[in-house]
Amino acid sequence: MLAQLWDNYLEVVAMILFGIGFANLLLHKNLIKKIIGLNIMDTAVYLFLASMGYIESRIAPIATNGDLNAELYVNPIPSGLVLTGIVVSVSVSALMLALTVRLYQRYHTLDIDEITTLVRKEHE
Amino acid sequence: MDFIKNLAFFSILLPMVSGPVSSVLHGKTARRLSFTAVGLSGIFSGILLWYTLYTGEPFVYKMGRFAAPYGNEIRVGCLEALVALAFCLIMFLSLLGGLKFLKRDIQEEKQNLYFIMINLLLASLLALVYTNDLFTGYVFVEINTISACGLIMARGWGRNILAATKYMIMSLLGSGLVLISLSILYGITGHLLMSNLHESIVKIMEEGTYVEPLTVAVGLFAVGIAIKSALFPFHAWLPDAYGYSTCSSSAILSGLVSKGYIFLLIKFFYRVVGTDIIRATGVDDVLFAFGIAGMIFGSISAIQQTDISRMIAFSSVAQIGYIYMGFGLGVEMGMIASVFHILAHASGKSMLFVSANGLSEVSDGSRNYRDLRGSAYRHKWAGAGFLIGSLSMVGIPLLAGFTSKVYFAEAAMNAVPVKMIITLIALAISTILNAMYFIRMCITVFTPMNEQYKVEGFKGGLTYNLSMACFIVITFVLGMLSDPIFNWISQGLSQFS
């Protein structure tokens, strides 16, 4: 069991990071820290994907000298997935930051619980 | 005839192009363009429905030059076409009904931005319905989330921005779980196309290797989608998001956004994992338990509300519970009932939100039920729509809600005895609870009162009345002519595997 975990240490680290990011996004009150959690969570998934696609002693999947033997190269699909995922996570981070800016300008705090109380007061 | 096969792709591409184009147009032109795009996508889906029923079998449309397992695919069967048609139709009617409120809530020069979100939302919904590739599904889930967030905050109040933030946080948790589940699935199978994934998963189950990672992946995917579609314990974001946004946004969010995710989950269960393996993992039992809890607690929360929009929003939690309960029954009939309930709830809830906005319009803009007294007499079409919608949600015969409840009860009779008893009791309790708040609200709005709130020279508006009439017709059609729709759903589901 321990040997298995040691062999796949990249995946283990990825899962731990995912847990940290998930808990941060869910439990933190501060909106900026929530966004940091979101990015840790997404990055952990990319680490997981990249470590799955990498094969020891092979090179990046770019055919430079016309050699089309697939055995030479690492799996290119996880890298493609990571790139797509990065685009998605950049856009949701940007949107979250924009929302945070709007909330901060209006309520002068980043604490989401405090903002909730302020909003409730505003509409009473 | 082969040209028809392109229509599924066109119906996704059309709103996807008209969205960015809207950004440079004036509000009025953007509005016309969006109505055209939504209408045309609906017509395309209708033609596809006719075509798939005519040929009697689904077809796969290859995207780009690469064949499976490398390329991307769209798959169209009669179930996909039916759901896509329903989504387009309900979105069209919600926009039509909410047009008047849109002009009031959003400045003219910013309206084109609203229609970008509408177009992107439609494109992502149709892509979720038609795609045959799980990763494409994930990307469109995110696009769906972003555009839904835009719809929630369109009104620009502090309250809307807070609701949008809370919605984003929960949605991002959900999509994080979906993404990690896809990565695990890709790790153990090496595929992302649904049909190839299914073959590998069947092989894995036969060999008995990687059963635990598979169970984890299925569980994470189901939980991720459950968070995004507001299944009971994850519904905290829902009432604010649905309750305070502008009329079209509430109608579209409650009717369509969560349903798109649920449809992806159905495809995941049938096309990727296979229903037998889902039952073996026990994920469906968990969904069943949460669905039942949602049915009861959603209604109890709805009873406590005094704000009509929040009441309808909490009722959505209960109805989503019904859909997940159908998944969990573990019989074919339960899934058919769930899909039927997706259609019934999508039309009914959109109608309720549009009519609630009409009722509050003639009551000084108040949504409190005390102020709404007698409003049905001041705005007759909204009153009629609210009455029909409420009766349908409660489950009065001839209406859509009744038919889906009959299907759920029928499905329960085929399930294992424990689930049968729990389901029937929960259905009975939930119907009584539904009746408690919907009938109370109906009695309130139909209680005649003095002339105090009389609105001079009030006209509902042609677009509003038209959309209300169409919603009422749809509710009756789903209730009375449900047999062909039932057959299409069951044919589509059997072609899924």
Structure description:
The complex is a heterodimer of chains A (124) and B (497). With 124 residues, chain A is mainly α. Helix content of chain A is 73%, strand content 0%. Chain A has a single domain, classed as Orthogonal Bundle (Helix Hairpins), CATH 1.10.287. Chain A has five helices and no strands. Chain A is elongated. The N and C termini of chain A lie far apart (58 Å). The longest helix of chain B is centred in the middle third of the chain and has 32 residues. Chain B has a two-stranded antiparallel sheet. In chain B, helix 4 packs parallel to helix 10, helix 12 runs antiparallel to helix 13 and helix 13 packs antiparallel against helix 18. With 497 residues, chain B is mainly α.
Mean pLDDT of chain A: 89
What structural class do the secondary elements of chain B suggest?
A: mainly alpha
Written as H for each helix and E for each strand, in order along the chain, the element string of chain A is: HHHHH
Order of helices and strands of chain B: HHEEHHHHHHHHHHHHHHHHHH
Oligomer: heterodimer
State the share of residues found in helices of chain A, binned by percent: over 70%
Low-pLDDT segments of chain B: none
Distance between the termini of chain B: 26 Å
Strand order in the sheet with the most strands of chain B: 1-2
Percent of residues in β-strands of chain A: under 5%
List the helices and strands and how they pair.
The complex is a heterodimer of chains A (124) and B (497).
Chain A: H1 2-7, H2 9-27, H3 31-53, H4 76-107, H5 112-122
Helix pairs in contact in A: 2-3, 3-4
Chain B: H1 7-22, H2 27-55, E1 59-63, E2 72-76, H3 78-105, H4 111-130, H5 134-152, H6 158-189, H7 194-207, H8 211-228, H9 238-243, H10 247-273, H11 275-281, H12 283-303, H13 308-328, H14 332-361, H15 375-378, H16 380-394, H17 400-414, H18 417-445, H19 462-480, H20 482-496
Antiparallel strand pairs in B: 1-2
Helix pairs in contact in B: 1-2, 1-4, 2-3, 2-4, 3-4, 3-10, 3-14, 3-19, 3-20, 4-5, 4-10, 5-6, 5-10, 6-8, 7-10, 8-10, 10-14, 12-13, 12-18, 13-14, 13-18, 14-16, 14-17, 14-19, 14-20, 16-18, 16-19, 17-18, 17-19
